[in-house]
Amino acid sequence: MSISLEKQIRFRKTFAIISHPDAGKTTLTEKLLLFGGAIHLAGNVKARKTQRYATSDWMELERQRGISITSSAMQFNYQGFVINILDTPGHQDFSEDTYRTLTAADSAVMLIDAAKGVETQTIKLFEVCRRRGIPIFTFINKMDREGKHPIDLMDEVEKVLGIEAYAMNWPIGGGADFKGIYDRQTGQVECFTDGLRKGHDDTRQTGHIDDPGIKEWIGEDLLQRLREEIELLDMAGNVFDQERVDRGEVTPVFFGSALNNFGVPNFLDSFLKLAPAPAPRQSNLGVLEPASQQFVGFVFKIQANMNAMHRDRIAFIRICSGRYERGMNVIHNRTHRKMRLAQPQQLFAQERTILDEAYAGDIIGVHDSGVLRIGDVLAEKDGIEFEAMPFFSPENFARVSIANALKRKQFIKGIQELQEEGAIHVFRDLNIGVEAPVIGVVGQLQFEVLEYRLRDEYGVEVQINNLPYEMVQWIPKDEEKIRILKESSMSMVVLDQDENYAVLLLDKWKANWLSERYGVEFYPQPLRE
Ligand code: G4P
User: Fold this and answer.
1) What domains can be seen in the chain, in order of their start residue?
2) What gap in Å lies between CA 255 and CA 296, rounded to an integer?
3) Would you state the pLDDT for residue 57?
4) Candidates 192, 259, 262, 267: which one to mutate for ligand 1, based on the most atoms within 8 Å of Cβ?
5) pLDDT means per 10 residues in the chain (529 residues)?
6) Residues 108, 111, 117, 121: is their CA dihedral positive or negative?
7) What is the pTM of this model?
């Protein structure tokens, strides 16, 4: 095992930020990138966001709804660490995409608006994180605005999300009276200066809680209150336990204001100490150590038409072990064929840099001509597999058809590519061909995105007619049972992309009734031979 490889990996942190829309994810991402010198002017990420919006209606939809639909990966360096941030969609309708992105992350940062507390999307996204079992760090943002009391916020995190919260720092005052934060590990107070918004925060005023200057700065009353609250936390609060943090049982909580850069360096410094480096992964061949010599990566996301000018398709690969070198040959595990990773790229929003090397923990983007699928493994040797990506069963169904028959080819291509991205599940009605597939999605909003993207990226206008079904189940190929289900008004028999028989059902109750009445066996996932 090469020492330098091990060292490279030890100093890598790959995490995703999850939050309810508007909590400040873009702002925090931008500030983090700023500290790493990845961008020089505050506002860049937003500017990029706006540029992207301008190029596509799909992004316009994102803007109108105030939600982040796509996930992208960004990298920056800070104090000897290489940090990979994975952006996740904020809306629950895209939790399937979020989950896939989280498979590429070693930890998550949960951002909460201090005035709003734990919001609906936070709950859903948190659940997705919990399913992955990764450490979760909490940043409570917008402390410069009037918000809930920090004790209530901690309480809410614990009660609503069911995770223990450990305050790493503690806010002094709040809203108009926000004076700063107290670091519980060092006993240092960091004072908030209104108007730090200009850029890199190097004007932080700090001092020990017992320094006379601090009393002068925050005032006797607030200092007294701070001491009382700290005492309360020390006595009645949770105990810090790194192992429990690693298991996702305790979330370290930080307070701050991303917009003002305040509390962000404090958070980043602690986060880098506490967050895990790339972790070993379980494979069919045993545990894969990140520092093993063999390059192994897997595709966690595919995105077509990222650049409206080139209409290209990018597969995002999380490197799980070893080192990537420009132009290296790998084996594509599903087809057992050799592939050359000629021009992998690192992505920074819309800007791309050709990579010469990358290590376990990093995310690389490769051009894909339609060969790669989500979950595929690329490795130097053949035969390695990871646990399959979890299957999120669609809960909304619609028949999608083209308005103009002349666009048939583009329509089929669009549906095919969006299916390969994992954005939709495509089923074929036995009586109607590919011209009017039945599309299944997890959340209704995905239909809107489908409509926008087919129009914007493929030039196809479609009609979306919702169907009354709420669930899909797979069935064995038994002609008699298929005939019964075809005739029933409670179900619709379809074929999935691999020609497996499936049945759309009105609800769980009716599914049970059909199953009992006719002895049909239903399976929640496609049946494998
Ligand atoms: P998102 O990506 O999670 O959706 O949130 P985003 O960063 O876009 O932030 C949402 C709004 O919250 C923005 O205001 C942003 O400036 C504001 N914000 C973020 N962090 C803080 C903070 O620490 N304190 C305060 N007071 N506000 C914060 P906006 O008016 O929607 O946009 P803009 O006009 O400021 O760009």
Assistant:
1) 18-70+108-276 (3.40.50.300), 282-379 (3.40.50.300), 396-518 (3.30.70.3280)
2) 37
3) 42
4) 259
5) 80 93 88 70 45 41 46 80 84 76 94 96 86 94 96 96 96 91 94 60 73 87 94 90 95 95 92 96 94 95 69 85 92 94 56 74 87 93 89 91 90 91 90 85 88 90 96 94 93 93 95 94 83
6) negative
7) 0.83
In the prediction, which pLDDT does 37 show? 67
In this structure, the strands spanning 357-359 and 313-321 are: unpaired
Q: Is 23 in the pocket of ligand 1 (CB under 6 A)?
A: yes
Check whether 93 is labelled as a binding-site residue. no
* Helix ranges (DSSP H) in 237-282: 242-246, 264-274
Is ligand 1 within 6 A of the CB of residue 142?
yes
pLDDT at 38: 58
Question: What's the pLDDT score for residue 271?
Answer: 97
Instruction: Write down the pLDDT at residue 516.
Output: 95
Q: Which residue has the tokens 């209530």?
A: 152
Tokens of 44: 């860049």
144 lines ligand 1 (CB under 6 A): yes
d(CA 141, ligand 1 centre) in Å: 10
Ligand 1 centroid to 185 CA: how many Å? 29
Q: How far apart are the CA of 258 and the centre of ligand 1, in A?
A: 8
Q: Which of 22, 33, 264 has the most ligand 1 atoms within 8 A of CB, as the residue to mutate?
A: 22
Other CB atoms within 10 A of residue 87 CB:
21
**Given this model, what pLDDT does residue 308 score?**
57
Q: Which two three-digit tokens encode residue 255?
A: 């307070």
Question: Residue 52: CB within 6 Å of ligand 1?
Answer: no
Q: Whose CA is nearest to atom 12 of ligand 1?
A: 24
In degrees and rounded to multiples of 5, residue 504 shows phi and psi of -90, 135
Strand, coil or helix: what is 305? coil
27 lines ligand 1 (CB under 6 A): yes
Q: Is the CB of 237 under 6 A from ligand 1?
A: no
CA angle 259, 198, 190 (to 5 degrees): 65
Task: Tell me if 82 sits within 8 A of 12, measured CB to CB.
Answer: yes
Q: CB 81: neighbour CB atoms within 10 A?
A: 17
Q: Which is the closest atom of ligand 1 to the Cα of 145?
A: 26
How much is the pLDDT for 149? 95
**Which mutation among 20, 26, 27, 50 tests ligand 1's pocket best, with the greatest number of atoms within 8 A of CB?**
27
